[in-house]
Amino acid sequence: MTAHLIVRATVADAGDRQRFDRWYGETHMPEAVASFHPARSWRSWSTLDPAIHYAFYEFAEKRQLEAMMVTDEFKVMVADFTKEWGGKVSRERDVVEARVRHPELLDNVKKGDQLTLDYTEAVALSVTRAP
Asked: Which residues contact 65 (CB under 8 A, 6 or more apart)?
């Protein structure tokens, strides 16, 4: 199953956000993609808190992601981030493994059906058929 490295950065000073956005988009993420070869990557700012920036790196398997995170290249990327933003931007990393995909559930959803997301262990989607 696919695995994702999720990096959550908090850019507390609104005056730093535009420069951070440009640096991450033009420098940091392209370097990460070139170094680690994720299957996909994308990033976004939170719509609930304008200080929060998320970056997502998708890998084919969790073990591929875990192996990447112990490389010297990864350590260099972490050090580059710290050098550029240390003290101004805090960050957290998390690894999330996709366990089950059920695209067929969404294909069968009809108007009036209730969708339920369950976040207890892994995200699960269930459909309750409308009467």
From this structure: 3, 4, 5, 57, 59, 95
How close are the terminal C-alpha atoms of the chain, in Å? 35
| Residue 9, number of CB atoms within 10 A of its CB | 20
Residues 68 and 126 reside in one and the same domain: no
Structural domain including 17 reads 3-97
Only one residue has tokens 């999720």, namely: 6
- Summarised one tens digit per residue, pLDDT across range 48-97 is 999 999 999 999 999 999 999 999 999 999 999 999 999 999 999 999 98
- For residues 32 and 77, the answer to whether their CB atoms sit within 8 Å is yes
DSSP string, the chain: --EEEEEEEEE--HHHHHHHHHHIIIIIHHHHHHHH--SEEEEEE-SS-TTEEEEEEEESSHHHHHHHTTSHHHHHHHHHHHHHHTTTEEEEEEEEE-----HHHHHT--TTPEEEEE-SSS-EEEEE---
Residue 51 in contact with residue 17, Cβ under 8 Å?
yes
Counted domains in the chain = 2
**What's the pTM?**
0.75
